[in-house]
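Holo prediction. Input below; ligand is magnesium ion.
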Amino acid sequence: MSLHTPDGYQALDNHSVRTFLAGLPEIRSKLGGAPERWTVEEVGDGNLNLVFLVDGPDGSVCVKQSLPYVRAAGESWPLPLDRAFFEQSYYRAIEPHVEGLVPRFYYYEPKLYAFVMEKLSPHIILRRGLIEGKRYPQAAAHVGDFAARSTFATSDFGATIEAKAELTARFAKNTSLIRITAEVVFSDPLSPSPRNRWTSPELDGLAARFRSDSVLKAAVAHFGWRFLTEGQALIHGDLHTGSVMVTETDTRVMDPEFSFVGPIGFDVGAFLANLVMNYLAQPGHATAADDRREQADWVLDQVPVFWNAFKTRFLSLWETSARGDAYPATMFGNPADATVLAAAREVFLDRIFADAVGYAGVKTIRRILGFAHNADFERIADPARRAPLETKAIELARAFLLEPASFRTPEDIVAAAKAI
Ligand code: ADP
Ligand code: SR1
Ligand code: MG
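Structure of the complex:
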């Protein structure tokens, strides 16, 4: 099958990516030397796109390009190309607010649905590092800081009605990827979708039980509705540990193609869920030399680190940078207002936490019963070893959704994950 694409589009390869970059004077001089001497490697290991790393004698860049289909599924699952437009739009929109926490953005070519950004090196994907038993002391706090800065600045606390409306209108058109999330995250995993898969036959009974759990399905559908309707801020939309590249000291959030104006708790919950899944998967990566217990405890300790960084930054921005039209500063000028305003802010953050717990439940279920699974579990080759760990994760996810009153603080999540 050959998919129709607009005039001027062609999927890049190791040769044509050189020609493309050689035609961009600033990028060409950044790389230096002759284009035919540049080294090019296609490293895309994600579900959707092409990613090229290009090195010249003087520098390096990364090129990311949309394909007209879902890479992980092939041409049988066509997908419009415009996700590259939204990914670069997100970087441009939030760059001033999250300095140093995203790759530097260089150039977007609309005809190719491709953009050029900083090549992150020697960074690796956070999820991969955690699976390998590595620790990144700054990462969780940096991602918490990122989530707070990016959402505060684009919410009605940090942005005017007019500025937020621009973002809402622009990113509302990211319908292909909003639809993918609505389907592969919220609806497919608890429906009889042919796109689903799970560790079989070990989890066959569990999958059937979850699909016939009406109360659970209603809870997931409730969060699915809120995902579509609560335009609180510009969110990343896919903020798991595979969307973060790290060194011991540096953290960059990447892959924001699913961005749109949605619920803040969706980003927060995605990162929480992926920390908890990595914690629960650690015994599956144990070896004779390393039982991974200390690593697992360290990963779980990042749950409060992440949340506290998010909350602290969000509250401090609310104190210092409230330029939006929600809770306008002019309304709260009396000294007596301060205590009430501080309490209202705490209530708001408690709500975001509660939302995050619900979304974390949804995001965990989809990684075990849905289309796109996590390397944290997938890299455990032996299904007899993997299935019990996946079962723990999905039972905890069910509790996140059906027993929200048990999860008021990050320490509640830590305790429940240890107890399961
Ligand atoms: P997809 O959108 O298809 O999921 P990703 O954005 O996750 O693709 O990128 C796929 C892989 O490419 C990442 O896992 C990472 O290894 C590599 N990569 C992506 N962006 C960069 C970058 N700026 N610098 C270095 N490597 C990158
Ligand atoms: C069909 S794409 C499935 C998943 O890949 C991306 O990384 C997102 O998580 C999406 O839900
Ligand atoms: Mg992606």
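The longest strand covers residues 50-55. That is the main takeaway for now.
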